[in-house]
Amino acid sequence: EPEVTQTPSHQVTQMGQEVILRCVPISNHLYFYWYRQILGQKVEFLVSFYNNEISEKSEIFDDQFSVERPDGSNFTLKIRSTKLEDSAMYFCASRVGTGDYEQYFGPGTRLTVT
Amino acid sequence: GENVEQHPSTLSVQEGDSAVIKCTYSDSASNYFPWYKQELGKRPQLIIDIRSNVGEKKDQRIAVTLNKTAKHFSLHITETQPEDSAVYFCAAPSSSNTGKLIFGQGTTLQVKP
After folding, report:
1. Share of chain B above pLDDT 70, in %
2. Chain A residue closest to B4 (CA)?
3. Does B59 touch chain A if contact means CB atoms closer than 8 Å?
């Protein structure tokens, strides 16, 4: 069964550094999402992406964040200058398209900012 | 605004007992209600979902009920087993039409053998 994949599984970085989290959504899916989960808390929406552009972003998704789909398969989340409070699990998700609501989550990247 | 409330935050049951987790949502336009199970350090996994045109859906030991008038939906797990122990999240899509999911706060279910 096709799965969403994410790399790396764990990223440790120093405050102020840039990180890029990578995702490969399921190949025939058209809608892509990033969510964040701080340890012990709920999953929070960051951004949605469709037709090569951001369709919605949350208050968390400020100017330090950006997303890209540089080719036909990868979907990346970049944090330009990491802060301690960016430490969290970041999940990528994708879904097929209109009328099919089910979102498939990747295994997540644990980001630790020191 | 968009909001999903989930109760209880923790639930402890004996193996074989039933467990019920409840969620309420604020957006009356929501029409899809998934439940995710998340084991420690793992991704949320969809275990069951329901569309707004039905009131109940069952899959073996798991069922979900939906009351659109009251804007709440519930997860029912019967004959619980230790491997059901996990954090369960309900979710509902926002009205923004992007498909983004608003998650509840999560319920930590512990099934004691």
Report:
1. 99
2. A42
3. no
